[in-house]
Write a structure and sequence with these properties.
The protein is an all-alpha fold. It has 2 domains: about 80 residues, Rna Polymerase Sigma Factor, Chain: A (Orthogonal Bundle); about 80 residues, Arc Repressor Mutant, subunit A (Orthogonal Bundle). The protein contains 7 helices and no strands. Helix 1 packs across helix 3 and helix 3 crosses helix 6. The chain is globular. The N and C termini lie far apart (about 55 Å).
Protein backbone atom coordinates (compact mmCIF):
# COMPACT_ATOMS: atom_id res chain seq x y z
CA UNK A 1 0.00 0.00 0.00
CA UNK A 2 1.09 3.51 -0.60
CA UNK A 3 2.38 5.66 2.19
CA UNK A 4 -0.43 8.19 1.55
CA UNK A 5 -3.04 5.47 1.97
CA UNK A 6 -1.38 4.31 5.17
CA UNK A 7 -1.23 7.85 6.58
CA UNK A 8 -4.86 8.44 5.65
CA UNK A 9 -5.90 5.22 7.39
CA UNK A 10 -3.92 6.01 10.55
CA UNK A 11 -5.41 9.52 10.73
CA UNK A 12 -8.97 8.25 10.23
CA UNK A 13 -8.42 5.52 12.81
CA UNK A 14 -7.08 8.01 15.37
CA UNK A 15 -10.05 10.30 14.78
CA UNK A 16 -12.61 7.50 15.06
CA UNK A 17 -11.03 5.07 17.54
CA UNK A 18 -13.64 5.86 20.21
CA UNK A 19 -16.22 4.17 17.97
CA UNK A 20 -14.19 0.98 18.11
CA UNK A 21 -13.60 1.20 21.86
CA UNK A 22 -17.33 1.63 22.51
CA UNK A 23 -18.19 -1.37 20.36
CA UNK A 24 -15.49 -3.41 22.13
CA UNK A 25 -16.96 -2.47 25.49
CA UNK A 26 -20.39 -3.49 24.31
CA UNK A 27 -19.32 -6.93 23.08
CA UNK A 28 -16.62 -7.87 25.60
CA UNK A 29 -16.05 -8.14 29.31
CA UNK A 30 -12.55 -7.55 30.55
CA UNK A 31 -9.53 -5.67 29.35
CA UNK A 32 -7.86 -8.54 27.48
CA UNK A 33 -10.96 -9.37 25.44
CA UNK A 34 -11.42 -5.65 24.73
CA UNK A 35 -7.83 -5.35 23.46
CA UNK A 36 -8.18 -8.50 21.34
CA UNK A 37 -11.40 -7.30 19.73
CA UNK A 38 -9.96 -3.81 19.18
CA UNK A 39 -6.97 -5.36 17.42
CA UNK A 40 -9.16 -7.62 15.29
CA UNK A 41 -11.41 -4.72 14.25
CA UNK A 42 -8.36 -2.61 13.38
CA UNK A 43 -6.99 -5.45 11.24
CA UNK A 44 -10.32 -5.83 9.44
CA UNK A 45 -10.54 -2.06 8.87
CA UNK A 46 -6.98 -2.05 7.49
CA UNK A 47 -7.70 -4.98 5.15
CA UNK A 48 -10.87 -3.33 3.87
CA UNK A 49 -9.55 0.25 3.71
CA UNK A 50 -8.31 0.08 0.08
CA UNK A 51 -11.90 -0.72 -0.93
CA UNK A 52 -13.36 2.21 1.05
CA UNK A 53 -14.72 4.48 -1.68
CA UNK A 54 -15.91 7.32 0.49
CA UNK A 55 -19.56 6.87 -0.49
CA UNK A 56 -20.36 7.26 3.20
CA UNK A 57 -18.53 8.89 6.08
CA UNK A 58 -15.51 6.97 7.37
CA UNK A 59 -17.20 6.74 10.77
CA UNK A 60 -20.29 5.08 9.27
CA UNK A 61 -18.12 2.63 7.36
CA UNK A 62 -16.02 1.96 10.50
CA UNK A 63 -19.21 1.29 12.52
CA UNK A 64 -20.28 -1.26 9.93
CA UNK A 65 -16.93 -3.06 9.80
CA UNK A 66 -16.49 -2.95 13.60
CA UNK A 67 -20.00 -4.20 14.34
CA UNK A 68 -19.76 -6.96 11.73
CA UNK A 69 -16.40 -8.05 13.14
CA UNK A 70 -17.67 -7.99 16.74
CA UNK A 71 -20.87 -9.84 15.87
CA UNK A 72 -19.01 -12.44 13.78
CA UNK A 73 -16.52 -13.12 16.57
CA UNK A 74 -19.30 -13.13 19.16
CA UNK A 75 -21.23 -15.74 17.16
CA UNK A 76 -18.14 -17.86 16.43
CA UNK A 77 -17.21 -18.06 20.07
CA UNK A 78 -18.17 -21.49 21.30
CA UNK A 79 -17.47 -20.51 24.89
CA UNK A 80 -20.02 -18.86 27.06
CA UNK A 81 -19.40 -15.19 27.58
CA UNK A 82 -17.64 -14.67 30.86
CA UNK A 83 -18.71 -11.57 32.67
CA UNK A 84 -16.94 -9.47 35.18
CA UNK A 85 -18.87 -7.93 38.04
CA UNK A 86 -19.24 -4.21 37.61
CA UNK A 87 -17.91 -3.66 41.13
CA UNK A 88 -14.63 -5.35 40.21
CA UNK A 89 -13.93 -2.91 37.40
CA UNK A 90 -11.52 -0.08 38.08
CA UNK A 91 -12.66 3.40 37.27
CA UNK A 92 -10.45 6.41 37.53
CA UNK A 93 -12.73 9.35 38.25
CA UNK A 94 -11.76 12.26 40.36
CA UNK A 95 -13.64 12.47 43.64
CA UNK A 96 -15.47 15.71 42.91
CA UNK A 97 -16.79 14.32 39.60
CA UNK A 98 -17.97 11.03 41.07
CA UNK A 99 -21.71 10.54 41.05
CA UNK A 100 -23.04 7.41 42.77
CA UNK A 101 -26.51 7.76 41.28
CA UNK A 102 -25.13 7.99 37.77
CA UNK A 103 -22.86 5.00 38.42
CA UNK A 104 -25.83 2.94 39.55
CA UNK A 105 -27.91 3.96 36.51
CA UNK A 106 -25.03 3.08 34.16
CA UNK A 107 -24.54 -0.24 35.91
CA UNK A 108 -28.20 -1.14 35.49
CA UNK A 109 -28.23 0.04 31.87
CA UNK A 110 -25.19 -2.05 30.94
CA UNK A 111 -26.64 -5.09 32.71
CA UNK A 112 -29.82 -4.65 30.69
CA UNK A 113 -27.97 -4.10 27.39
CA UNK A 114 -25.87 -7.24 27.96
CA UNK A 115 -29.14 -9.22 27.90
CA UNK A 116 -29.95 -8.07 24.36
CA UNK A 117 -28.94 -10.05 21.28
CA UNK A 118 -26.08 -8.88 19.10
CA UNK A 119 -28.15 -6.90 16.57
CA UNK A 120 -30.17 -5.26 19.34
CA UNK A 121 -26.91 -4.24 21.05
CA UNK A 122 -25.69 -2.65 17.83
CA UNK A 123 -28.94 -0.75 17.37
CA UNK A 124 -29.14 0.56 20.93
CA UNK A 125 -25.45 1.49 20.84
CA UNK A 126 -25.89 3.63 17.73
CA UNK A 127 -29.10 5.13 19.12
CA UNK A 128 -27.31 6.10 22.34
CA UNK A 129 -24.54 7.61 20.22
CA UNK A 130 -27.19 10.00 18.81
CA UNK A 131 -27.05 8.51 15.33
CA UNK A 132 -30.11 9.23 13.26
CA UNK A 133 -32.14 6.38 11.77
CA UNK A 134 -30.72 7.05 8.30
CA UNK A 135 -27.17 6.43 9.54
CA UNK A 136 -28.26 3.47 11.68
CA UNK A 137 -30.01 1.85 8.72
CA UNK A 138 -27.06 2.49 6.42
CA UNK A 139 -24.57 1.08 8.91
CA UNK A 140 -26.58 -2.02 9.75
CA UNK A 141 -27.87 -2.61 6.23
CA UNK A 142 -31.56 -2.43 7.13
CA UNK A 143 -34.32 -0.01 6.15
CA UNK A 144 -35.04 3.07 8.25
CA UNK A 145 -38.53 1.73 8.97
CA UNK A 146 -37.05 -1.57 10.15
CA UNK A 147 -34.55 0.30 12.34
CA UNK A 148 -37.37 2.33 13.93
CA UNK A 149 -39.52 -0.74 14.55
CA UNK A 150 -36.62 -2.68 16.04
CA UNK A 151 -35.65 0.31 18.19
CA UNK A 152 -39.17 0.58 19.61
CA UNK A 153 -39.12 -3.13 20.43
CA UNK A 154 -35.70 -2.79 22.07
CA UNK A 155 -36.90 0.14 24.17
CA UNK A 156 -39.82 -1.98 25.36
CA UNK A 157 -37.53 -4.89 26.11
CA UNK A 158 -35.16 -2.64 28.10
CA UNK A 159 -38.08 -1.16 30.03
CA UNK A 160 -39.19 -4.67 31.01
CA UNK A 161 -35.65 -5.59 32.06
CA UNK A 162 -35.13 -2.38 34.03
CA UNK A 163 -38.62 -2.25 35.54
CA UNK A 164 -39.79 -5.87 35.99
Amino acid sequence: MSNDLEQSFVQQLKTNQNIIHKICRLYTNGEDAHKDLFQEITIQLWKAFPKFRGDSKFSTWAYRVALNTAITLYRKSSKTVKTVDYEKQQFFISQEDYNYEEEERLKLMYQAVYQLNDIEKALIFMYLEDKDYAEISETLGISEVNARVKMNRIKGKLKKILNP
